[in-house]
Amino acid sequence: MTNEAIDMSRGVPPTDLLPTEKVKECAMSAMDNFGRSLLQYHSKITPTVQGFQPLMELLADEMGNGAKQENVLIGNGSLDVFDILTNSLVEAGDNVLVESPSYDRSITTLERAGCNVTGVPLEEDGLDTGRLADLVEEKNFKLLYIIPDFQNPSGITTSTKKRNEVTELAEEHDFWIIEDSPYYKLRYKGEHKPRMWDLSPQKVLYMSSFSKLIAPGLRIGWTIIPEDINEKVLQYAEDSYITPSILSQGVVYEFLQRGWLEPNIEKLKESYVVRLNALLENLESKMPEASWAEPEGGFFVGLNLPGGTTFTDLEEKSEELGLNFSDSRKFFPEGGDVNFLRIPFCTLSPEEIEESISRLKEVL
Amino acid sequence: MTNEAIDMSRGVPPTDLLPTEKVKECAMSAMDNFGRSLLQYHSKITPTVQGFQPLMELLADEMGNGAKQENVLIGNGSLDVFDILTNSLVEAGDNVLVESPSYDRSITTLERAGCNVTGVPLEEDGLDTGRLADLVEEKNFKLLYIIPDFQNPSGITTSTKKRNEVTELAEEHDFWIIEDSPYYKLRYKGEHKPRMWDLSPQKVLYMSSFSKLIAPGLRIGWTIIPEDINEKVLQYAEDSYITPSILSQGVVYEFLQRGWLEPNIEKLKESYVVRLNALLENLESKMPEASWAEPEGGFFVGLNLPGGTTFTDLEEKSEELGLNFSDSRKFFPEGGDVNFLRIPFCTLSPEEIEESISRLKEVL
Fold it and tell me: Whole-angstrom Cα distance, residue B195 to residue B180?
């Protein structure tokens, strides 16, 4: 390794793992098979703002458990979908809950919608459900945003027991759960946990994305909406963009139809697990005094910095170290300095992982 | 013509005029030339949320008059871009201005951002600038949304004199102008007027789109942002969707690079002027008692209904007539019933135009 800066700031797939040739082939067939539909305002062709109908159907079928395609919304990436869901559900001044830490961009979305964002501390098996129970007893919350699988930024997975507790609380205290699960299929170890949507489809809005499974630039995020609020959410989406970008949706449909998704995921997992193991080995050997939850999938390890080192300490030395970090403080809705660092292992080669942990060790 | 219902509700290009084969070829080259860039989170490849850099460059060059690519934002359709601009510029409770009538979806965007929307009456040569001067003298307005060329829904074009008056008022009274001009290049008669952006690039946010020039489903809208607010707008865009859908932007870039845009526009204009003339002839012969402003381009004729007929009267008979209308009342921010009907002539064949005016005549 040279002394080049290593970018540890973003959870993006390595560019050389993007299936460029396959996407090109899918774009060609999508245009051959559906050209005119893909180029028109979609709500004219099929009376829906919800996305490309054949893809909606595939997604509903794959969800199973009674999911209907009329409750599917496919939008321009999952952050955009989350923005639509948030603004459909909340009004300025509403109270909402997130895990603490949580995905910084989602916290921003909630805050700019005017929400009061409260963090529920994250434990090794998911958020502190005792604390959650106290909070929802105390006052009304409109929704809980949760990333139950290989959480961003901590890598933590919510246990089955806690998934049940959280959905029971949502039913009892009448709040929505937005279950954001873009990494669900990127599990390297252990067994899949039940989706929270399976436990309470009437209270849970399930969100996923093809950004991590095929390619981010396609901007395909999607959600399954509970029946009660379906119309409201779809109206908000139509008022936002009339119809989402449909060409990419045709591409994803062709990719799925060809059976290319599962082999692509297998290829990604083979590469990502090597990177995860390299990170864990480097942390164990070089940073025994730090602590972290070992993720079973996804993109991130959340490092608890040892010896009182704060993110601000790290940030001050980031240029000297040649390491770029994302701002850890933004993962915590409470604000203030934190002893936390998110490491996006999928983005880095094993060599970059070794080098970056060596550089980090110097400063800790 | 059979008695099939005729859909007069939406301003969409006729599906048989969509350049499907050309778009397919552009999609293939875009993937060949830029595949990896198009599939990655774009802000990783070039440090920007603003869109596909080669397309940004082309758009800035074509704007001329000192437009810089760092002030270009290309988003997921122009309604989405308008939503980003609105929410970057206003806070709930702000006063904003629109022409009355104006594009219903834009009024919705302003209202859902919490704005107080005031309409400025439209005259045959653009909005009533005397009334505008009084209004901005009376109180503070944050912005004026205006469609100066072949307005939606009226078909009216703002005169050069009024363009100057409006931009002078904006500079004097410090409000933003959002100039929405998706039909600018679809001029069938007469000479281009100066863009308001040319008159006051520091106060005007210019918006355009490829929905009417290539295909709506690509969802490519764009804007040039005044330097003062560039950073704020781009941050709002990044917080909304990280990066827009890039594949379609690559397609549009290839389309432009091949020199296919101008011939495509010529082809559209040849077809649209026939439809416009058919509509005008039918109106003159069948409805001499109605009035309308003769548009020199665009998609719409705005019909002033004769004899006290209101939109609600029409709506009640719409099923019987076999005609679907868009809701004229939504074009007027004041609310209430109106003596107005928008006719989207580009969407209809000359036969449909003749038949629909015959049916309308029956009820008037």
Answer: 10
- Nearest-Cα distance to chain B for A212, in Å, is 10
Nearest to A112 among B13, B36, B239 (CB): B239
pLDDT for residue A337 is more than 80: yes
Q: Does A221 lie at the interface with B, CB-CB under 8 angstroms?
A: no
Q: Of B66, B73, B56, B38, nearest to B233 (Cα)?
A: B73
Asked whether the beta carbons of residue B15 and residue A23 sit closer than 8 angstroms, the reply is no
What three-state secondary structure class fits A335? coil
Quote the pTM value. Answer: 0.96
Alpha carbon separation from A343 to A335, A353, B45, B170, B283 (Å, rounded): 20, 9, 20, 49, 67
CA distance B7 to chain A (A): 10
Q: What mean pLDDT, rounded, does chain B reach?
A: 95
Q: What is the sign of the dihedral through the CA atoms of B1, B4, B9 and B12?
A: negative
B10 contact residues in A (CB cutoff 8 A):
41, 44
Q: Which domains are seen in chain A, by residue range?
A: 6-18+262-363 (3.90.1150.10), 20-257 (3.40.640.10)
Structure ipTM over 0.85, yes or no: yes
| Facing residue for A23 by CB, picked from B18, B31, B77 | B31
The answer, yes or no, to whether residue A44 has pLDDT greater than 70, is: no
Q: For residues A115-119, give the mean pLDDT.
A: 98
Share of chain A above pLDDT 90, in %: 93
For A177, the 3-state DSSP assignment is strand
Closest-CA distance of chain B to residue A287, Å = 29
Residue B75, pLDDT > 50, answer yes
State the virtual CA torsion across B149, B153, B159, B165 in degrees, nearest 10. Answer: -100
pLDDT surpassing 70 at residue B355? yes
Among residues B174, B170, B228, which one has the least CA distance to residue B199? Answer: B170
H helix or E strand, kind and range, residue A92: none
| Mean pLDDT across A151-164 | 98
* Whole-number pLDDT of residue B77: 97
Are A43 and A49 in contact, with CB atoms under 8 Å apart? yes
Helix (H, G, I), strand (E, B) or coil at B302: strand
Strands B126-127 and A323-325: unpaired
Residue B89 has pLDDT above 90, yes or no: yes
Q: Which of A45, A79, A217 sits opposite B39 (nearest CB)?
A: A217
Contact A247 B92 (CB under 8 A): no
Q: Which of residues 36-65 of B touch A (CB under 8 A)?
A: 36-42, 44-45
* Nearest CB to B15; choose among A36, A83, A108: A36
% of chain A beyond a pLDDT of 70? 98
Asked, as a colleague might, if the bond just before B13 is cis with ω within 30 of 0, I would say no
Q: From CA A352, how far away is CA A7, in angstroms rounded? A: 9
